[in-house]
Automatic annotation (TrEMBL):
Protein name, as recorded: DUF4982 domain-containing protein
Positions of the Glycosyl hydrolases family 2 sugar binding domain: 93-186
Pfam families (alphabetical): DUF4982, Glyco_hydro2_C5, Glyco_hydro_2, Glyco_hydro_2_C, Glyco_hydro_2_N
Positions of the Glycoside hydrolase family 2 catalytic domain: 303-483
SUPFAM superfamilies, A to Z: (Trans)glycosidases, beta-Galactosidase/glucuronidase domain, Galactose-binding domain-like
UniProt source species: Seonamhaeicola maritimus
Tagged with keyword Zinc: no
Residue ranges of every copy of the Glycoside hydrolase family domain listed in the record: 737-824
InterPro entries xrefs: Beta-gal/glucu_dom_sf (IPR036156), DUF4982 (IPR032311), Galactose-bd-like_sf (IPR008979), GH (IPR017853), GH2_Domain-Containing (IPR051913), Glyco_hydro2_dom5 (IPR040605), Glyco_hydro_2 (IPR006101), Glyco_hydro_2_AS (IPR023232)
Similarity section: Belongs to the glycosyl hydrolase 2 family.
Gene Ontology biological-process entries: carbohydrate metabolic process
PROSITE patterns: GLYCOSYL_HYDROL_F2_2
Length: 830
C-alpha cells in the first residue's frame, strides 16, 4: 500500500482515528426543558435549527440583571461580599439547553465500535442515544466521549444532549451550549484507544533523535501492529512491525531512531506524524495518526530551555471566547488571534483557566507557540457559588487525566497547570490537593513540568504548595521576585499573570496623573475616577492588584532568572469588566488588543519589547483632542529605535531616549509585601520615550526615530481628523474557504483618509452573496447593543464585522451610517 501523507490534513485529523465524522449540521435546539426531549420519537419540529459550534447566549440581548454575583474578591483585599454585574458578560448563559440530531448508521457500522466525541459542552452535559442515557460530563471545558455502539440501530438514530448552566458558575463568560465540535468516531472493534498514544522524544542530538511511542490497543485476537514515522515532508523516516495477541487491552512501547531530526521550535515548528496501523489477516482494520514534534525542554534555575536555548516567556493569558462571536470555537478566529499575538511578539500562551478546544493546540503546534494547558480555576473551595468546586471531588481526577491524555502529544504544550489562584492557598492546602493533582499528572507524563498560578505568594511558599509543582507561577508579584529567590533559592518560577492596567482603544483622559490615578486595594468597585467606563489609557489606571506593564518589564530585566511573563490577557474577553461591575460594562479592559481584535496603544509597547523583527515607532494620544486645545498633555512613544523627536506643527519638543533604571525603585524590602499598584513616570520612561508637557494644538504631530548614530530611521504622523467623509470596509483576508468566518474592519475617515476618532454614530450592516452576517463589535466594553444584530455604533471611528461564508463566490457587504455608506465585494469564497 502506498502512503501519501499531507501533514496539514493530518493536523485536522488530529489524534483521532481516520473515520471521524463531524456532526455539525442539522441540529435542533431549544432553551426549554422538555421532559421527554431525550426520547427518540420526541417531536422537535418547532425547535430552532442550529449548526455546531453553537453558543446559545451570545446572540441574546445584554442585560445587567443576568447573573448578578454577590462575591468577595479576597485578592482585592475585600472583607465583605459585594454585588457585581457583568462578571459573566451580562448574557443569559444560565439555564437549560437541549440539542437533538439524527445520525444514520448502516448494519455494517454496528459491527464496528462507534464513539460519540464532544470537544467540550457548556455544561453539565447529559447524553442520550435513542432515548437511552449514555453518560454525563459536568465540566464544560473538557473533551469527552462515550461508546454508543450498543444503543444504535440500523438506520436512523437520535442523539439528544441536555445542558445546564447555573448562575454564579463562572468568573467570566463561559458560553453556553455545544460550543465546540461534536463528532462520531467509527473504528474496528480492535483499535487504538482514543487518546491511546503517547509520543515523546527522550534523546535528541544533531545526528539523531529517539522517538518513544507508548501505545494502547483495545480489542481481541492476533494482529500485526505497524508504526511508521513520517517526516514533515511526508517521507517515512522509521518503521516497525510487531505481531501481538490482544485480550481486551494491550500496551506496547516502541523506540524509533530518526536521523537528522528537524526540531520543532518557535520559528521552525516542524511536525512529524506517527501512523499506527493495525492489521488482521493482512488487512488494515484501524489506523491512528499522532502528530508530534521533536524538541527538548528543560526547566532550570536560571530559566526555561527549548532545544537547549534559553527562551523567556513573552506570554499572554487567553480566555476561550471570540468576543462578539462568543464561545463557539472557530479555528480561523483562533488563528486570527494568534497571528495578532505573534505580531506583538508573543511566543507563549497560558490557556486560562481551563483546557482549550483541541484545535487550539493544533494551531499552537503549527504556529510555533508554547502553551500552558490549565485544568482548573477552583479546587474544593469555591470562588463562585456554583463553580468547579461543586464537581471537584467526583470529577477532578478524570478531568485532569483526560486533559493530559488528550493533549500530551502536542509539542507546544510545555507545562500542565493544575490550578489558578486556588482558594486552598489561604488555608495552606490542608488536604494537600497540590500533591494529589501533581501526582496524577506525573503518572501520565513526566516529560513536562507541572505548575500552578499562585496569587497569594506568601501562603503558597510557606505551605510548600509552590515547591510541590515543578515550576511555580506567581500572579501580579513583580516586587518580590528577588526576595523569593533569596528565600527559596531552589524554586523555579515565572509570572503566570501580569499587568492589570485598564484601557479602551483610542480613549484618553486628561489631566494625566501617573502617580496617583489608580484604584487602591479593597476599592475595586470605586469607579468614580472615570465614571463613563473609559479608563485613562495612559496605562495609569489599574485594578488594585495590578500595575503597569513597565513594572513587570523592569522587574524581569532585573531578575533575569524569572522564566518570563504571561500578560493578563492577550485579548479582551466577555465578562469581568473590572472595575466597572456597576451595570456599566460587560467585557474586560486589561488586554493590549480589544475584544474585536484591534490594537490599543500598549500593543506597541509589548511589540517594541518582544518582537525582535519589528521596527516599532508608535505614539499617543491621537491628535484630535478639541477639548485640550492650548493645554499641556504628555506624549508617549513606544519604539525600538534609540531616540525619537516629537514635532507639533513643525515645532520640535526635543530628541529623547528611554531612561532605563539599573535597579527598579519599587522592589519590596521583604517577601510579605505583595502589594503592587500604580505607574510612576520613572517606570514609564524606562520603556517609553515621553514628552511630558506638550501643548496640544490641532494639526499634525510627527515623531521621528533615530538610530544610535543619530540617522533618521523612521517617522510616524498623527493628524487632527476632519469631517467624516467616507466609510472604509477592509477585509482582513484576501480569500477564505466555504464555511469559514471572515472579519472586516470598518473605519469612518475624513477626506485625507484619517480615521475620524471622535465618530461614535450607529451603522447598519448588510451582508449578501456568499456569506451571512454573524456578529459585530466595536471594542467598547460599555457597548450593550446586541452582538448578533446588524446594528453597531462605531467606537472612536471604528468597528468590526464578522461574516460566515456559506457559498462559493463574492461576499457583498454594505454599511450605512448617517449620510455615509459604502460597499465592499472584494472578498472571494473559494
Ligand atoms: C486574576 C485571576 C484572573 C483574572 C485577573 C484579572 O486574579 O486569576 O482570572 O480575574 O485576576 O486581573
Amino acid at each position: 500500500m502506498k502512503y501519501i501523507i499531507y501533514p496539514i490534513v493530518f493536523l485536522w485529523l488530529s489524534i483521532l482515528p481516520a473515520q471521524e465524522i463531524e456532526l455539525l449540521k442539522n441540529w435542533k435546539f431549544t432553551n426549554y426543558d422538555y421532559g421527554g426531549a431525550f426520547q427518540k420519537d420526541f417531536n422537535d419540529e418547532n425547535w430552532d435549527s442550529v449548526t455546531i459550534p453553537h453558543d446559545w447566549a451570545v446572540k441574546e440581548d445584554f442585560n445587567f440583571t443576568h447573573d448578578i454575583q454577590l462575591t468577595m474578591v479576597i485578592q482585592d483585599g475585600e472583607t465583605k461580599p459585594k454585588y457585581r454585574t457583568g462578571r459573566t458578560g451580562a448574557l443569559p448563559y444560565v439555564g437549560i439547553g437541549w440539542y437533538r440530531t439524527n445520525y444514520e448508521v448502516s448494519a455494517s457500522d454496528l459491527e464496528q465500535k462507534v464513539q460519540l466525541m464532544f470537544d467540550g459542552a457548556m455544561s453539565n452535559a447529559k447524553v442520550y442515544v435513542n432515548g437511552n442515557y449514555v453518560g454525563e460530563r459536568p465540566f464544560g471545558y473538557i473533551s469527552f466521549y462515550f461508546d454508543i455502539t450498543k444503543h444504535l440501530t440500523p438506520d436512523n438514530n437520535v442523539i439528544a444532549v441536555r445542558l445546564e448552566n447555573f448562575s454564579s458558575q463562572s468568573r467570566w463568560y463561559p458560553g453556553a451550549g455545544l460550543y465546540r465540535k461534536v463528532s462520531v468516531v467509527k473504528t474496528n472493534k480492535t483499535h487504538v484507544k482514543t487518546w491511546g498514544t503517547f509520543v515523546s522524544t527522550p534523546v535528541i542530538t544533531k545526528k539523531s533523535a529517539t522517538v518513544n511511542l507508548d501505545l494502547e490497543i483495545l480489542g481481541e485476537g492476533n494482529c500485526t501492529v505497524v508504526n511508521e514515522v513520517f517526516t514533515p515532508q511526508g517521507v517515512i523516516a522509521a518503521k516497525s512491525s510487531k505481531e501481538i495477541k490482544i485480550d481486551g487491552e494491550q500496551k506496547i512501547s516502541e523506540d524509533f531512531k530518526i536521523k537528522k531530526p528537524k526540531l520543532w521550535d518557535i520559528k521552525t515548528p516542524h511536525l512529524y506524524n506517527l501512523k499506527t496501523s493495525i492489521l488482521k489477516e493482512g488487512k488494515i482494520i484501524d489506523t491512528y495518526t499522532t502528530p508530534f514534534g521533536i524538541r527538548s525542554i528543560r526547566f532550570e534555575l536560571d530559566g526555561f530551555y527549548l532545544n537547549d536555548r534559553k527562551v523567556r516567556f513573552k506570554g499572554v493569558n487567553m480566555h476561550h471566547d471570540f468576543g462578539p462571536v462568543g464561545a463557539a470555537f472557530h479555528k480561523e478566529l483562533f488563528v486570527r488571534q494568534m497571528k495578532k499575538m505573534k505580531e506583538m511578539g508573543v511566543n507563549s500562551i497560558r490557556f486560562s483557566h481551563n483546557p482549550p478546544a483541541p484545535e487550539a493546540l493544533d494551531i499552537c503546534d503549527e504556529m510555533g507557540i508554547l502553551a500552558i494547558d490549565e485544568a482548573f480555576d477552583e479546587w474544593q473551595i469555591g470562588k463562585v457559588l456554583n463553580g468547579y468546586s461543586k464537581q471537584f471531588d467526583l470529577w477532578a481526577k478524570k478531568d485532569l487525566t483526560d486533559m493530559i491524555l488528550r493533549d500530551r502529544n502536542h509539542p507546544s504544550v510545555i507545562m500542565w497547570s493544575i490550578g489558578n489562584e486556588i482558594m486552598e492557598q489561604y488555608q495552606k492546602d490542608p488536604n494537600d490537593i497540590t500533591s494529589y493533582l501533581n501526582d496524577i499528572v506525573k503518572t501520565l507524563d513526566t516529560t513536562r513540568a507541572t505548575t500552578a498560578g499562585f496569587n497569594s505568594a506568601n501562603n503558597a511558599l510557606q505551605s510548600g504548595m509552590a515547591s510541590t509543582v515543578d515550576v511555580a507561577g506567581f500572579n501580579y508579584k513583580p516586587g518580590i521576585y528577588h526576595k523569593i529567590r533569596e528565600h527559596y533559592p531552589n524554586l523555579k518560577f515565572y509570572a503566570s499573570e501580569t499587568g492589570g492596567s485598564l484601557s479602551t482603544r483610542n480613549s484618553y483622559k486628561f489631566p494625566v496623573n501617573f502617580d496617583t490615578a489608580q484604584t487602591k486595594r479593597g476599592t475595586s468597585l470605586n469607579t468614580e475616577l472615570y465614571p463613563d467606563g473609559q479608563p485613562g489609557n495612559y496605562e495609569n489606571t489599574n485594578v488594585p492588584w495590578g500595575y503597569s506593564p513597565y513594572k513587570e518589564f523592569a522587574s524581569q530585566d532585573y531578575n533575569d532568572f524569572v522564566y518570563g511573563e504571561f500578560v493578563w490577557t492577550g485579548y479582551d474577553y466577555l465578562g469581568e469588566p473590572s472595575p466597572y461591575h456597576t451595570a456599566k460594562s460587560r467585557s474586560s479592559y486589561f488586554a493590549p488588543v480589544d475584544m474585536v481584535g484591534m490594537e490599543k496603544d500598549k500593543f506597541y509597547l509589548y511589540q517594541s519589547e518582544w518582537n525582535e523583527e519589528a521596527e516599532v515607532l508608535h505614539f499617543y494620544p491621537h491628535w484630535t483632542l478639541p477639548e485640550m486645545k492650548g493645554k499641556e498633555i504628555p506624549v508617549v512613544c513606544y519604539t525600538t529605535y534609540e531616540k525619537a523627536e516629537l514635532f507639533v506643527n513643525g515645532k520640535s519638543y526635543g530628541i529623547k531616549t528611554k531612561q532605563k533604571q539599573e535597579v527598579p525603585e519599587f522592589l519590596a524590602e521583604n517577601i510579605e509585601k505583595e502589594a503592587s499598584g500604580g505607574t510612576t513616570l520613572a517606570q514609564l520612561k524606562a520603556y517609553a520615550i515621553v514628552w511630558e508637557n506638550v501643548v496640544y494644538e490641532p494639526g499634525e504631530a510627527v515623531v521621528v526615530g533615530y538610530d544610535k548614530k543619530g540617522e533618521k530611521v523612521g517617522q510616524t504622523k498623527r493628524v487632527t481628523s476632519g469631517e467624516p467623509h467616507s466609510i472604509k470596509i477592509e477585509s482582513e483576508v484576501p480569500t477564505l474557504n466555504k464555511g469559514e468566518v471572515a472579519v472586516y474592519i470598518v473605519s469612518v475617515v475624513d477626506k485625507e483618509d484619517n480615521i475620524c476618532v471622535l465618530y461614535n454614530e450607529n451603522m447598519h450592516i448588510e451582508v449578501n452573496g456568499a456569506a451571512t452576517f454573524l456578529a459585530s463589535g466595536n471594542g467598547d466594553p460599555t457597548n450593550v447593543q446586541n452582538l448578533s444584530k446588524p446594528e453597531r455604533r462605531l467606537f472612536n471611528g471604528q468597528a468590526v464585522i464578522f461574516v460566515k461564508s456559506n457559498n462559493e463566490g463574492a461576499i457583498g457587504i454594505s454599511v450605512k451610517s448617517k449620510n455615509l455608506n459604502s460597499t465592499n465585494t472584494s472578498l472571494i469564497v473559494k
